[in-house]
Design a protein that fits this description.
316 residues, alpha/beta, Rossmann fold, 3 domains, 6-stranded parallel beta sheet, 6-stranded mixed beta sheet, 12 strands
Length: 316
Amino acid sequence: MLQKKANVSKMTVSRVINHPDQVSDELKQLVYQAMEVLEYVPNYAARALVQNRTQVVKFLILEEIDTVEPYYMNLLTGISRELDKHSYSLQLVTQKSKNIGPYDGLIVTGMRDQEIDKVLAGLEKPVIAYGENKRNIDAIDVDNRLGTELATKHLYDIGFRHIIFFGINLLEEEFMRSRLTGYSSVMKAHDLIEESYFMKNSSRIAEKKALDILQNTKKPTAIVCASDRMAIGAVRAATALHMNFGENIAVTGFDGVFLDRISSPKITTVRSPVIEMGETCAQLLLKKINEGGAQQGSILFPPKLIIRGSTVVGRE
């Protein structure tokens, strides 16, 4: 009935349902329209049994949750939204529990370079990493270098020449090196002196460091922060010193998922399309599962600079 309504073969219908990546968009649209008209619901349980699938994807977070919230809620929204389209369930697991129970694939985030071998040990299922890495592991991330380039160039364009970088003390990690490189490239291009500090991803620690610096300089100063959490601390320090944002102080953040909007003033930030990145992460993993674990490569998403009151006078 379904193949007649869509005017395609049984094989095409089967491919659309079981291997949509192998079918053209035009054919998929024909079958999907027929499914909607006939109110057809595929028997995913039967399909999973035939294909020896569990319809389960595991998500492993290897970071302290309190330092990355609410970032991961947005990421999980994107991942679960895409998995739901394919009747997959999502399980959150720890390093110790990642091999407990059957599953079809694993998404790993917060994986540090020195931990990669330990994390991947014993894994026989397809893996996608969320975050840049230098080990040729299939991954999704934002273009970290471009993000800090945009932020630093913005600060230069509005007149700041004393521009400092606040980084997370994970310089051995690819994403942090990329963010530092973005800042450094703009500073070098304009023959400016680089000044970088690395610390825990904490608003309190960033606030203390910013106070120390700002109290001991009379120059208009801008701070490029590697996270919105750190930017909140820098904004608090400048506010405590009664500095004027956009005039003798400017602060940028990175992520743009919530914390940038609760600051006063709101923070100019490098926004990552986290929900879209989560969806693509799930798509890449499902494609890898369907292709028997074949290498998928890595994708970097372009960030967007959101300009607000922490850098420009008169903005919210």
